[in-house]
Design a protein that fits this description.
- The protein is an alpha/beta fold.
- The protein is built from 11 helices and 6 strands.
């Protein structure tokens, strides 16, 4: 009688309402009488518009339930039931639950991993890895004698450190494997320019000059030529433009400055060209430039090609090598 009252209170605490579809999963050593009574209580809670399906945990993966069918999955909630939920079992429970549906399960756990039994923390991780969200530990109670005896027979666990933990988890609000387009913008956003401060109307008017202001007798315009005197209009002496040390090189030899602007560089270049012309050998006949056919035996240009008058002849290295 006490066990029946506990099961009725459990269903009331879960929040199962009329019209819900519930999957009740059981395992050994649950008695048929207890399972039938629990299923009838669930049927009364969901009403004629709801649905209660009963499945054994070992045959859950072989069931023909369609995906996203149930609002609730209740697993091993009977007081004399104790079983370990494998990853395949949890995956099947995710599949048959509707998006947003709830799983409530009971499972024996230990304080530390021992003889194949897992802790409450490991059970929480297993639920999350199976795809459940909002995993919460609801309560912890002692295992019944029937459940402990059946668990020892199935797993060989002999220690007395087991407790019964109730976990609640929910399926995401979307179907497993569903996709949705996400709009992403990787373009660089141009910051909005800062608003310019408003100008004082009187200040703005002060800096404006209109056509009417040009005819105003109060406007005094200066002539730029009046700002120059007679000395400013005279052409400067080139010697005055040179620096005091301009042209003084090593050994008092004239040398133009780098980036010369006073004209000394051009002057020295002209002098160099004139000197090159004066260094050319003198021709007595004046026909040396025509070629060897017109040159005498003592001509300094003998053997050289014809050239223009006044041009200095420079033979290439290849010509000297061939010779």
């Amino acid at each position: 009688m006490r066990r029946i009252q506990q099961e009725t209170e459990i269903m009331a605490d879960l929040g199962i309402k009329a019209g819900d579809k519930v999957l009740l999963v059981w395992a050994q050593p649950s008695t048929p009488e207890a399972l039938k009574r629990y299923a009838e209580e669930l049927g009364a809670a969901v009403g004629a518009d709801g649905k209660v399906s009963v499945e054994n945990m070992e045959r859950l993966s072989l069931s023909s339930h369609a995906a996203s069918t149930f609002d609730w999955v209740l697993s091993c909630l009977l007081a004399d039931c104790s079983s370990i939920h494998s990853s395949d079992t949890l995956a099947e429970m995710v599949r048959v639950l509707k998006p947003g549906g709830t799983l409530v399960l009971d499972e024996p756990v230990t304080g530390k991993d021992d003889q194949g039994m897992r802790t409450a923390e490991k059970l929480t991780s297993a639920l999350k890895l199976s795809g459940f969200l909002s995993v919460t530990e609801v309560s912890k109670t002692e295992l019944s004698a029937e459940a402990l005896s059946a668990l020892r027979g199935a797993t060989g666990y002999q220690a007395n450190t087991l407790t019964r933990v109730r976990m609640s988890a929910s399926k995401p609000d979307y179907e497993v494997g569903s996709s949705s387009q996400i709009k992403l913008s990787f373009g660089k956003k141009t910051p909005k320019p800062a608003e310019k401060p408003a100008l004082d109307p009187s200040t703005k008017k002060m800096w404006m000059l209109s056509a009417n202001d040009m005819n105003d007798d109060d406007v005094d315009l200066l002539d730029s030529d009046a700002l120059l005197d007679e000395d400013d209009l005279k052409k400067p002496d080139p010697a005055s433009l040179k620096a005091s040390s301009c042209g003084e090189g090593a050994g008092k030899k004239k040398k133009a400055c780098k980036n010369c602007t006073c004209g000394l560089a051009e002057e020295l270049e002209e002098e160099s060209k004139g000197k090159q012309k004066t260094d050319l050998p003198k021709s007595a006949c004046g026909s040396c430039y025509l070629g060897d056919a017109f040159r005498c035996a003592s001509c300094p240009y003998l053997g050289m090609p014809a050239f223009k008058p006044g041009e200095k002849i420079v033979l290439a290295n290849t010509t000297l090598t061939d010779a």
